[in-house]
Amino acid sequence: MAEYLFPAPRPASLPVIGQGLRFPVGRIFCVGRNYAAHAAEMGSEVDREAPFYFLKSSHAVRESGGILPYPPGTEDLHHEIEMVVAIGAPVFRATVNRAADAIWGYGAGLDLTRRDLQAKAKAMQRSWDLGKNFEGSAVLSALTPERDFHPANQRIHLEVNGATRQDSVISDMVWSIPEIIADLSHYYHLAAGDLIMTGTPAGVGALRPGDRVSGGITGLAPLELTIGPAE
């Protein structure tokens, strides 16, 4: 057995509906501008030639239901509710017709964004890492196995302090789930444990300490979060 200089970190994981086992999380791939109305509200257009992506590290994972301190380095934290696809089998260079075979299950996710840092990066033509990839920036619900959920036109919504901010249907996604998996699989060897956050509908907005966030997707486990004081 290998010995380490200090204790190795425990892998991030998520609960599974109806099971005592947990889903270990590997990489988190995020699809940008996958709802046309959200792209428009951000002053952009959808690139209909191919999806584009950014990544979050596993340290970004935070389970639904807790309190997250207001993140450091920002004065403009935004919410983005998303559908999450959990990969359960290796997939590489898949066709669209075969891509869905790799799906293990589904959940709801909150892509928290330091919007001011993202905007600064965009203006300087730099990567979005500081704006998107930070501790607690991927708040995730329990996962539902694929056999128990079939994506169609289910409602996706988010409320802040009881007031609706985002309200759409997942069928409004520009790129379908099989299309996204197939495209990603031409750039990565996707593996069991990988998650894909599939983009957010219009209505994103700022969060403040004390805000209570709730939302989800019809038929999947709900998502809840409270924003705590800054550390």
TrEMBL record:
<keyword id="KW-0479">Metal-binding</keyword>
<dbReference type="GO" id="GO:0018773">
    <property type="term" value="F:acetylpyruvate hydrolase activity"/>
</dbReference>
<keyword id="KW-0670">Pyruvate</keyword>
<dbReference type="InterPro" id="IPR036663">
    <property type="entry name" value="Fumarylacetoacetase_C_sf"/>
</dbReference>
<keyword id="KW-0378">Hydrolase</keyword>
<feature type="domain" description="Fumarylacetoacetase-like C-terminal">
    <location>
        <begin position="28"/>
        <end position="227"/>
    </location>
</feature>
<dbReference type="InterPro" id="IPR011234">
    <property type="entry name" value="Fumarylacetoacetase-like_C"/>
</dbReference>
<dbReference type="GO" id="GO:0046872">
    <property type="term" value="F:metal ion binding"/>
</dbReference>
<protein>
    <submittedName>
        <fullName>Fumarylpyruvate hydrolase</fullName>
    </submittedName>
</protein>
<dbReference type="Pfam" id="PF01557">
    <property type="entry name" value="FAA_hydrolase"/>
</dbReference>
